[in-house]
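Exercise: predict the structure of this protein bound to inosinic acid.
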Amino acid sequence: MKLVIASRNKHKVAEIQTLLAGAPGLTVVSLDGYAVPQIVEDRDAFLGNALKKAVETAGYIKETVLADDSGLSVDALNGAPGVYSARYAGDGASSARLCAKLLRELEGIPAARRTARFTAALAVAAPDGRVLHTAEGIVEGVIASEIRGVNGFGYDPVFYYPPLKKTFAEMSPAEKNLHSHRYRALRELLKKLRN
Ligand code: IMP
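Solution:
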């Protein structure tokens, strides 16, 4: 089965391609070379946005499509930035700006109240737009008091993962891929694809 990843986020695409490499019978390709208009992510939940991206993209390119909608939810901010994670510090903001804004918003909040989670929602749509599968993965962590590490993207430098005592940006890509929300969601999706 050929699966086109409906994302222009190179970091996400690379993680998904690595995580799905070796899945028997699956050829995973990026959206490079496909002409697809920007899809408006206007749903109030990760899964709603993933479904919208998968179905609309499949409709445009007539291929089987995998869409990922993901983000960070911080308890002390009532779940923000949530579905606005990519735009939290303005359109196209860098990882440094996203992290700086989050650290500012959490200034003075003690570690015990800095709990947060990454969620990845996945949806697979058939070339005719039918939804074939959905899956979700969550990883719990704590927002660090400063940025740490240089790997990854987005909020990785401030997302501290207690079991490894590291932020996601302090992990190698392989290490992040063993623990991330995306890994957990893809593991669930692969089970469904195999069945
Ligand atoms: P979207 O799914 O394209 O709407 O964007 C999700 C946004 O959430 C990304 O631009 C990142 O800012 C953030 N995000 C999602 N997954 C990760 C991750 O694995 N590490 C760090 N940030 C992430």
